[in-house]
Design a protein that fits this description.
This protein has 24 helices and 8 strands. With 558 residues, it is of the alpha+beta class. Strand 7 and strand 8 form a beta hairpin. The protein folds into 5 domains: 147 residues, no CATH class; 95 residues, no CATH class; 65 residues; 52 residues, no CATH class; 78 residues, no CATH class.
């Protein structure tokens, strides 16, 4: 049976639509409405409702919405998973549509909203325009403590957002309970900041933001911080100065509104957002960091035209083990006064470029190739043997026919001369490793530093792929006489226990007390598998609580 749910209002939660439906059909319990909608019980989760597929099937006549439309326009799912990897988003969205699994999406780095909230002005406007009000999505975002449209503090109700097994739905128009406001004591500057954060959260909920794409955010944040002067040297980010400026910007009055955990100056989430490797961090943290960085003006003298590296290799024919194989570039002024950068990769690909990709700031856009490398020579030779002409090869690889001829005839270049020496360097390095099998690579390279530098510059991938040789680990069992130690510690534990029994004031003879008083190693308890006699002695000497209380009473009587 098709269900005629009310048409959702702009920025309305699915929870709110079902709550209005319950009022319209005049039922007393939420599970009765669930049965009419999806023919089974449905938990009233506010931000992340389940069974979107079933709801889409039942409301197809009136809504004409797919499960994806319901998830993206009637829930907080787009905001919560905004900075998740795409494959993770797809998996979570599938679970959300069928409702078969409970979702645990992210850790609570920033305080989550605990109760439903509304704006007094939006409520009045809704009643004037629609004759009723509803629960707005943007008001339930954890970082929105004020209305993103009017900038007034949100009224916090007593209706919990996260409940387990709760089937109740509360209509916004019918709510007449108590409310309180958490941001009434803020000054004008702090109110402006909260309003800016609320608007940014609303933008994240609605769709993409031009300044901050959803991918490679850690690289963008790092570049933005460096361009605003939070660095030491050329490209070393000063996290201490950056963290100090962040907490000074928000202040002690504003930060508690967004959670107690971010008050810690050494919070890991803040450091992770500016590291080279990407981490999954709460969307609320992204909103706070973006607003903070946008407040500081960009210093034009601090801008690096090609980023701060390391960079990806733009060679399409080579798959590197490292994500960023290019560590250094050379920047110079070209013939027409334009800033140019040149780079050499370990695969032999040498090129110059004027800019990096708009979608990936660490991927150079090649302007001119100086040396193509062996991968291109092999690919051109393979296509030529396959019967393709020079023109067909140039069209297939999108390169100039003259370049194809050079690659076919293997015109000698500086890079090709170096490649001939790489095999000799590899053999020499392996001979050094054979001469010192028990030493680390760091010690072996001191034996021939020039050889190591040549390999590091021209064949770094092969060098790093070698296993690191380490001194052979000495087994602890072979260097300790456990039988002798077991006998010594057994006698020591017994003497220590006797000493504790006769001590005044009366003290309980516990396992920990005996070990501490004996002044043996702190890892004693971890080695009891080798100390069977000592473990038995220790268990026999330990005093029970009842016996300890009796000794205390006797001592008091005396």
């Amino acid at each position: 049976m098709k269900v005629y749910l009310p048409v959702p209002y702009p920025d309305e939660l699915l929870y709110s639509v079902i709550a209005r439906y319950i009022v319209h059909i005049d039922v007393n319990k939420g599970h009765q409405a669930n049965t009419k909608i999806v023919t089974r019980t449905l938990t009233s989760c506010v931000g992340l409702p389940v069974s979107a597929q079933l709801i889409a099937d039942e409301t197809n006549v009136t809504w004409r919405m797919t499960p994806e439309d319901i998830v993206s326009t009637l829930t907080l799912f787009p905001y919560i998973t905004r900075y998740y990897p795409q494959n993770c988003k797809n998996i979570l969205s599938d679970h959300k549509k069928d409702g078969r699994r409970r979702l645990v999406l992210q850790r609570a780095t920033v305080e989550h909203a605990r109760f439903l909230r509304f704006c007094g002005r939006c409520r009045a406007n809704d009643i004037e325009q629609y004759g009723e009000t509803y629960w707005h999505r943007s008001h339930q975002i954890p970082c929105s403590v004020v209305c993103q449209e009017h900038g007034v503090p949100l009224a916090i109700t007593t209706i919990p957002i996260r409940t387990i097994g709760d089937l109740r739905y509360f209509d916004a128009s019918s709510y007449e309970g108590s409310v309180y406001y958490c941001s009434n004591d803020l000054n004008d500057d702090e109110r402006k900041k909260t309003h800016t954060i609320a608007r940014r959260c609303h933008e994240m909920l609605q769709g993409p933001i031009a300044k901050w794409p959803e991918h490679a955010t850690n690289i963008l944040y790092r570049r933005a911080a460096l361009e605003r002067g939070f660095k030491t040297g050329f490209a070393n980010l000063d996290l201490t100065m950056l963290r100090k400026a962040f907490y000074q910007f928000y202040g002690d009055n504003l930060l508690p509104l967004y959670g107690e955990s971010i008050l810690k100056g050494n919070a890991n989430w803040f450091t992770q957002m500016f590291q080279q490797r990407s981490f999954k961090v709460n969307t609320n943290c992204h909103a706070l960091v973006q607003v903070f960085l946008e407040t500081y003006p960009v210093d034009s003298s601090q801008i690096a035209p090609f980023g701060y590296g390391p960079w990806k290799c733009p060679n399409p024919l080579v798959v590197h083990q490292e994500a960023f194989p290019i560590n250094r570039i050379r920047i110079y002024t070209g013939y027409h006064g334009r800033t140019v950068a040149s780079a050499k990769c370990s695969c032999g690909y040498s090129f110059s470029f004027h800019r990096t990709s708009d979608y990936d700031p660490l991927l150079p856009v090649v302007n001119k190739v100086h040396y193509w490398g062996t991968a291109w020579e092999e690919e051109v030779g393979r296509l030529k043997k396959g019967g393709m002409t020079v023109k067909e090869i140039s069209q297939s690889l999108a390169i100039n026919p003259g370049t194809v001829m050079k690659l076919l005839h293997n015109v000698p270049s500086q890079r090709s001369k170096i490649i001939k020496n790489i095999n000799d360097w590899r053999k020499a390095w392996l001979e050094l490793l054979d001469k010192a099998p028990k030493q680390r690579n760091a010690d072996v390279r001191k034996m021939n530093l020039v050889l190591y530098q040549n390999l590091l510059r021209h064949d770094s991938e092969w060098l790093k792929s070698l296993p690191r040789t380490r001194p052979k680990h000495i087994n602890m069992e072979s260097r300790i006489d456990w039988i002798k130690r077991d006998e010594e510690w057994s006698n020591l534990f017994r003497r220590t226990a006797d000493k504790l029994y006769s001590a005044i004031p009366v003290r309980r003879v516990s396992r920990r007390a005996i070990i501490l008083e004996s002044k043996v190693s702190c890892s004693t308890s971890l080695n009891f598998k080798y100390l069977s006699k000592s473990a038995l002695t220790l268990s026999q000497c330990v005093e029970s609580i009842e016996h300890h209380q009796e000794r205390k009473l006797k001592a008091v009587r005396l």
